[in-house]
Amino acid sequence: MKQFFKTVFASMIGSFLSILLLIFVIVLVSIGTVLSLSSDEKVNVKEHSILHIQLNESISERSNDKQIDLPSFLNFADNNRLGLNNILASIRNAKNDENIDGIFLDLSAVDAGLSTVEEIRNALIKFKESNKFIYAYSEYYTQKAYYIASVSDSIFLNPSGLLEFKGVNAQYMFFQHALEKLEISPEIIRVGSFKSAVEPYMLDHMSDSNKLQTNVYLSALFGHMVQNIATARNLSYDSTFAIAKKLKVRTAEDAVTYKIADALIYKDELLDKFAHQTKQANSNEINFISLRKYSKSMKTEISIAKDKIAIIYANGEINGGSGDDESIGSEKLSNEIRKARLDKSIKSIVLRINSPGGSALASDVIWREVILAKAVKPVIVSMGDVAASGGYYIACAADTIVAEPTSITGSIGVFGVLFNMQKFFNNKLGITFDQVKIGDYADLGNYTKPLSPAERFIIQNEINRIYADFTNKVSAGRHMPIDKVRSIAEGRVWSGIDAKRIGLVDVLGNLEDAVNIAAKKAKLTEYRIVNYPEMEDPFDKIMKSLSNEARIYLMPNEYKALAPYIKSLEQVKNSKGIQTRLPLNFEIN
Length: 589
Known about the structure:
Elements lengths: L1 H37 L10 E5 L5 E2 L21 E2 H12 L4 E7 L7 H14 L5 E9 L1 H7 L4 E10 L12 H7 L2 E7 L7 H4 L5 H25 L4 H9 L6 H6 L5 E2 L2 H11 L9 E4 H7 L10 E8 L1 E3 L3 E2 L2 E3 H13 L3 E10 L1 E3 H15 L4 E10 L1 H4 L6 E4 L4 E3 L3 E7 L1 H7 L24 H26 L3 H7 L4 E3 H7 L4 E2 L2 H11 L6 E5 L5 H9 L3 H4 L9 H12 L4 E3 L8
Parallel strand pairs: 1-4, 1-9, 2-3, 4-5, 5-6, 6-8, 10-14, 10-22, 11-13, 14-16, 16-17, 16-18, 17-21
Antiparallel strand pairs: 7-19, 12-13, 15-23, 18-20
Helix pairs in contact: 2-3, 2-11, 3-4, 7-8, 12-13, 16-17
């Protein structure tokens, strides 16, 4: 009885604390909203200012204009994330801003995909046309940070610092033995020998075909990076590649010796250089302005052009329903494409895709709207970090597909995974099941029993049908013989570079290039850009996070490293129907 009261009392305390936390957050959000509204004024940029670029938080596709200022410890909803659109716009604006003398790249780690990094780097290259300086300094450069910094006029490193230049790798996590210990049997049905998304459940290592495709696209991506670094640093490709391959840069001194960096200096010495560049008497008078503040200083250009180009953002995993800023809901996205198709003032559509895929059915719903839109106005696809599997499904019907060299695409394949948990319930938990069914297949897909041969045959036939439909749609959209499509499909992943070579992509470029192509195809000389869909209300997003990501935020520190894997398991749980997607936790380092 004593234990019972202890348990009840602990539950009451937990509920009370949860209510207090909710009230606390609501009050802070309300205060933040008032402060945001009261401080929503333009920032004045002083003469001889330096644009201070730090990319130490995750970068989203676009910024939310309706942001709420909150204490940093409550920003688990990513309310104030930097958007790639704002970063690029700030760099473009600074190029012609008389008050900006140069850029300070204050970089350590960059939480973004390679294509996002590529777009920022290319914007900095264009900035250099102004003959303004770019200095980079860090105590520690990760490889992505260094790739951006490599365009600088001077790259400085702390004398005791580190610089990563070591090649790239893609690592997968495998659950086969964990599932065996739990006595959970995955029932896997797929089409495509390269379709690696199911391998973590059926193997304890990468298959030969997966190693082959991974080696090919990693080689293409890193070769592209090495070439760009070599060009920026006036080095040969072979010597630059050898520096990375043999990890020759192991100390700060090595970075200078191999001409990967220019000099080893301390922060005070860097500030003296900035004071000299901006004609200030001492370092205390240097005017640094952050990206976030600078973006608020820029004048919003109001165009009166009646013709429009719509940029429709398709960001995240593809599922049914409405989705949100970080996921694609087929109902919402297809409705946005439909509205743009029916709006006569919109003359062209750019579909910006950053997605690893997801539900095959949801992808097909979106594909249909792309087909209908294409029949009445140009539709151009711009690929971000990844537009693969279902992400490529919704892209393949476009008039023109634009990808970064470092975009990940292709993966034209289909799979389904069911988990037979009968032994787990029986042997681990002592739970058994019994049933009565009317209909031979009434319990098809039930996770408390294995698939019968007849059930597996039914599901395999459906996956084969979807795969045939997928490849036929790629064939029609890309004007490519079906035999060629099948030869480059099989679930194989390609870099943007190789995707262009084999015909899955038309142009290597960025979102701006895609907009220019859209304008040209629509024969527009004057137009304005409209962005869809409207982003989530920050307050709603924060409140949703309380029941979502806040529980990860509130985890003990020693368990927070498990958060990405918890999210992965939730994605498995929430994935419905047959899938066209990349592996979970797909990341290149």
